[in-house]
Q: What sequence folds into this?
């Protein structure tokens, strides 16, 4: 049982694999650059709550 | 539409509908919608339905004083619901399908004898 | 549009406001980001042709997304106004109260006074009967109008204007919706749609009078034929706050006041010029209704229509499926030709291309299904089918209201579960939520297509029958589960059903094509992102670590080598080649290759995981490869086909590029090299498992949210898994 660590193509493939795995897990684990929250922050968006008289309104 | 609590009124509504039918559908008498015959026209007078059902039917256009025409009797009961325009009583209309228990609780006055 | 929703941004409806304000003078203009086009919300009753109008105005320039926190779909589209006269076009059907000051699209000025060269953004809201109803659809419309909700990825802000779509043929009822819209005090235009149908029924509508009475612009249109749309575009570009409002209030009194107001207006604008005009049409509708809702005729016609739909699906889809497979084969060949042998070539050919083609090959089936269902829906038939189903559902403790959520679940369980908000009774609603995932969603289709094609490859009739059988099994399991729930944990009476029956009409091919494009594009995007990523992950896990080839394979290689050497010897005397030895050596080499590939896969990270779980699925007839497929499909069902394409890649002696993914999956064998992975018994077992199993994490999340407690989601998962496992094991035993 070996990993072909001397083959450069193995490392490229492993990099792609890690990116793909991070992409799939981005909804579960907060990953910088990939998580939806990070992208929202990049766009300058933030969540807001509807308030009346300073109290949140139950939707 | 008048709202009455549904629940135990199922039986009373059905028997009221039956009585009205047995006593004969004639103009001016308030009868259950389910007792109309195909092609008969009527005006809705009252609906003994729960709050949400009554609200939805009202929003769909099946409210008090609206003119209806029975397109299909039975289950489902299909009525054409139209606005009352001028003297002819015709106008734009939409079709609403109703399950029998709903049609049993909507009371109408018949406008004319069945044509079909 | 403004930023995030706050209390200060929402304005309460003010009755009696009368200043004729242009969009440009709206105080909310200060909050608007000038880079964003004005947003107009399309509001109206169901069946008023709102979506047809949206498609006409925006075409393919739209995107479909959900409202955050819900799975109710919203469509956002761009309406191009380039070079078009905004208020100076044909005015015959445009009736406004302030026509003295036309504004053209070319006129310079502030964004809201002129939209020259700019676009408008249209948001297609769900069809509702009233903004005041206590239902999910009405709630989302209210929140959009208040600026509290926006489609995912967009900022929540009140729309810049309203386009209220009314049905000309039932204008009296539709005017109540217009009244509610007017009370919102937003810049508004009224589009009276299906004017052609109304005329055919002998009904004429006095547009200018209606505009005068409503205090806003009114355009008589036919979204189907395109009549009046130029004028509507112009009116949309020059929206104004209505000069009049409608009466209102809460409860019965408020509703009665709006009703009286609507009746009075309709009495002044509606004219039945030809009372007999609609009679033949009505008679035909009556007759069709009687057939389609008949206790026997209704069920018979429903069965015939559904069988014809699926038969057409299978017959027509096989050609484009073949073309797609051919394209991917060529792509695979190109990669193996152009790229040197190595890990990256294998990743691209056997991981990415084989994986994606395994899913994309089913695109024609999915597109065709949505196209045909859209056509059917447009005819007005499906509402009649709802009543046929109502009779069928009631004995199982489900109300007729459940039909629409259950029908929606046939596309996807998420909108189906959200649609259960329209079910008034909480017990009935919960029962519907619990059984909705039993309905065959589109994610199951690739699996059904794969398995039914393996079973009945050259018999489309039988394949269609098996397909319909899968749908029927899902429905049966759903209703039986509902019955069990209603008899045990959710006892109570069913609520009777009421539903508007839309006019019968010829379906719009344009609308069906746009719906198909929408769904197909979502599928392709999913294949291009999530499914591709899953394929890459699976390829890596299936390729490493490397292991020594098995002893048997080494011996076979040596044997083949000896044969070649022997051939070399006998070639020498006469210069001829011994064909038997050559073929034999090649076939022995191929067998050695298969053994090596199978050994490598079974010792890979993926193979070890599959083997660890395999005993659980052995009673269902699945080997470790199928176990991997089933496990990955818990992330998303449609991943199964791509997973199998990647898992089985390289095990067959024929190359993917030569034979195609489908052939490779079909002909794959188990570790013994003889038994097919997809034997007939395994296929039936798989089919039953995928029909019944709960393999969708988002659905579980929505169930927990909508039912109010995670215990219902766990119950759903436990029950569906148990039923699927038991039924699949039984079927495997019976079939083998």
A:
């Amino acid at each position: 049982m070996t990993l072909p660590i001397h083959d450069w193509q193995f490392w490229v493939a492993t990099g792609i694999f890690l990116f793909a795995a991070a992409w799939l897990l981005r909804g579960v684990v907060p990953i910088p650059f990939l998580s939806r929250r990070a992208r929202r922050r990049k766009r300058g968006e933030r969540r807001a709550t509807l308030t009346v008289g300073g109290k949140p309104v139950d939707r | 539409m008048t709202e009455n609590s549904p629940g135990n009124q199922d039986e009373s509504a059905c028997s009221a509908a039956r009585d009205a039918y047995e006593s004969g559908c004639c103009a001016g008498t308030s009868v259950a919608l389910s007792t109309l015959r195909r092609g008969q026209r009527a005006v809705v007078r009252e609906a003994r339905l729960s709050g949400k059902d009554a609200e939805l039917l009202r929003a769909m256009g099946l409210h008090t004083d609206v003119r209806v025409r029975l397109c299909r009797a039975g289950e489902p009961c299909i009525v054409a619901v139209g606005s009352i325009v001028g003297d002819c009583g015709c106008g734009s209309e939409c079709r609403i399908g109703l399950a029998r228990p709903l049609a049993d609780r909507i009371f109408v006055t018949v406008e004319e004898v069945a044509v079909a | 549009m403004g930023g995030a929703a706050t209390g200060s941004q929402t304005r309460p409806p003010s009755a009696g406001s009368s200043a004729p304000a242009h969009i440009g003078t709206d105080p909310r203009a200060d909050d608007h980001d000038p880079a964003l086009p004005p947003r107009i919300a399309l509001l109206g009753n169901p069946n008023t042709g709102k979506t047809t109008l949206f498609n006409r105005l925006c075409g393919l320039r739209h995107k479909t997304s959900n409202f955050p926190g819900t799975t109710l779909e919203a469509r956002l589209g761009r309406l191009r106004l380039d070079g078009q006269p905004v208020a100076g076009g044909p005015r015959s059907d445009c009736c406004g109260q302030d026509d003295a000051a036309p504004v053209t699209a070319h006129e310079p000025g502030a964004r809201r006074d002129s939209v020259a060269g700019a676009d408008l953004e249209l948001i297609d809201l769900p069809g509702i009967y009233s903004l005041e109803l206590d239902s999910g659809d009405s709630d989302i419309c209210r929140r959009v109008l208040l600026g509290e909700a926006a489609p995912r990825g967009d900022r929540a802000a009140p729309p810049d204007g309203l386009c209220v779509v009314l049905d000309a043929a039932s204008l009296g009822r539709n005017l109540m919706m217009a009244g509610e819209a007017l009370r919102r005090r937003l810049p508004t235009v009224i589009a009276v749609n299906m004017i052609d149908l109304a005329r055919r029924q002998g009904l004429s509508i006095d547009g200018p009078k209606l505009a005068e009475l409503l205090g806003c612009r009114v355009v008589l249109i036919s979204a189907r034929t395109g009549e009046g749309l130029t004028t509507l575009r112009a009116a949309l570009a020059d929206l104004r706050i209505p000069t009049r409002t409608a009466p209102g209030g809460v409860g019965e009194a408020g509703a009665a006041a709006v009703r009286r107001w609507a009746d009075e207006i309709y009495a002044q604008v509606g004219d039945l010029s030809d009372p007999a005009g609609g009679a033949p049409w009505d008679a035909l509708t009556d007759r069709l209704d009687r057939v389609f809702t008949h206790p026997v005729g209704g069920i018979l016609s429903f069965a015939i229509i559904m069988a014809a739909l699926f038969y057409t699906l299978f017959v027509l889809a096989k050609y484009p499926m073949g073309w797609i497979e051919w394209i991917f084969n060529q792509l695979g060949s190109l990669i193996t030709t152009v790229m040197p042998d190595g890990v990256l070539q294998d990743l691209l050919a056997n991981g990415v291309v084989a994986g994606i083609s395994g899913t994309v090959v089913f695109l024609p089936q999915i597109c065709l299904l949505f196209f045909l269902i859209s056509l059917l829906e447009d005819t007005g038939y499906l509402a009649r089918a709802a009543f046929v189903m109502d009779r069928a559902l009631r004995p199982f403790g489900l109300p007729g209201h459940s039909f629409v959520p259950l029908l929606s679940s046939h596309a996807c369980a998420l909108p189906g579960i959200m649609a259960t908000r329209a079910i008034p009774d909480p017990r009935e609603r919960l029962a519907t939520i619990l059984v909705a995932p039993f309905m065959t969603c589109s994610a199951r289709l690739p699996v059904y297509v794969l398995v039914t094609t393996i079973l009945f490859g050259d018999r489309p009739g039988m394949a269609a029958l098996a397909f319909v059988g899968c749908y029927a099994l899902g429905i049966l399991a759903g209703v039986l589960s509902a019955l069990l729930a209603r008899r045990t944990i959710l006892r109570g009476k069913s609520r009777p059903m009421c539903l508007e029956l839309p006019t019968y009409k010829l379906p719009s091919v344009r609308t069906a094509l746009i719906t198909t494009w929408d769904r197909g594009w979502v599928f392709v995007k999913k294949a291009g992102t999530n499914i591709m990523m899953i394929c890459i992950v699976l390829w890596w896990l299936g390729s490493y670590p490397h292991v020594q080839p098995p002893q048997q394979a080494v011996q076979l290689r040596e044997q083949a080598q000896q044969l070649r050497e022997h051939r070399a010897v006998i070639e020498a005397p006469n210069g001829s080649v011994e064909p038997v030895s050559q073929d034999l050596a090649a076939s022995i080499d191929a067998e050695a290759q298969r053994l090596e590939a199978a050994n490598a896969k079974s010792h890979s990270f993926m193979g070890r995981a599959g083997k660890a779980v395999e005993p659980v699925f052995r009673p269902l007839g699945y080997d470790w490869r199928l176990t991997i497929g089933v496990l990955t499909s818990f992330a998303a069902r449609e991943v199964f086909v791509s997973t199998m394409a990647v898992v089985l890649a390289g095990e067959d002696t024929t190359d993917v590029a030569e034979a195609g993914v489908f052939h490779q999956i079909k002909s794959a064998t188990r570790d013994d090299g003889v038994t097919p992975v997809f034997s007939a018994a395994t296929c039936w077992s798989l089919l039953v498992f995928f029909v019944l199993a709960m393999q969708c994490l988002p659905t579980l999340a929505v169930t927990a949210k909508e039912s109010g407690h995670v215990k219902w989601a766990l119950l759903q998962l436990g029950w569906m898994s148990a039923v699927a496992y038991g039924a699949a094991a039984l079927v495997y035993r019976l079939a083998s």
About this structure: Confidence is low (pLDDT under 50) at residues 1-14, 20-27, 84-90 of chain B.
